[in-house]
Amino acid sequence: MPNDVTPRSSDAILAIARRVLLLILLLGMFGILVELLLVEHFEDAWQFVPLVLLTLGLVVIPWHARAPGRASARALRALMSLCLLAGLIGIFLHYRGNREFELEQTPNASEWELFRESVMGGTPALAPGVMIQLGLLGLLFGYLPAPPRLSGGRRGVPEEA
Prior knowledge:
Helix content is 71%, strand content 0%. The chain has helices at residues 7-38, 45-66, 70-105, 111-119, 129-143. The two termini are 37 Å apart. 18% of the residues are buried.
């Protein structure tokens, strides 16, 4: 079967993909932000990092979606890169806290037991991975080209430069 994708259908698919990514990002960020607030994830300065990043995401992502430009794209990409970094640091901090607790509880545990219990500990060690996922989705959204601007309310007619 020959290639059935025309430029017009490619633009439509891209526009749908951007809308779906936008929805996933906003719902994910809002949901995680609410959850972190409900579990009172603000005991120390490090715990504020995801709260700040998620709040900024709820501003920067719609800004870039409504007015894609160089400034909004750079802000989005920088923010999503910080989400990736925060996720990695969060995994480390959660794991380290669990490991310290497990060492206090069972000082003679083998390295494997200590690792296993630390990963499965009271603080979910892999939970910050959601920041990595959101960061990757946000970077994808930030690098997808924006659909062409329409002029004069006529659908499908690109705006003249």
